Give the backbone structure.
Amino acid sequence: MQTRRVLLALTVMAMLPTAPAAARTRAGSRAVRPPPGATVVADPPARIVDLINRDRAAAGLAPLRGDAGVRGVADRWSRQMALAGGLQHNHGYLCRAALERFGAAGVGENVAVGSSLEEIHRHLMQSAPHRANVLDPGYQLVGVGAVRTPGGLLYVTEDFLRRESPPSRPARRAPRGRRGG
């Protein structure tokens, strides 16, 4: 029986972090072509979001909604990992500039490589830090990207986002000369 390998990168969560200067660039701002012969997997975002939301529902949590901007970042990052042939977190997404760009209070990321979406999701859910991202009740949005290499490896990025709370409305001031009792 052949053993399948799934590699997971450690989860990094950002809550208004101080990022190195090199990481303060716009997240995913340049196009990255997949390696020759690699293919972008047909609609993995929908399948992975379904798997994530199935587990969130089982935990009594609200489903995550897909976000096109975050999906673009995840897609470009999956392509970059496939091109490099290894896993790494996107520090351009996990930085203060990305928080400001997306109007976010927090972001998180799971990256993995394996042979199928279901296998990757299962392994992510068996890893405490990755599971914590999937089941974080504060996250509202997710962007997913996946690229399959010619050798059959599937590189997946799941980028999570928690929006800032809407600013509270200032209390109405009493008209001049009048005080509340």
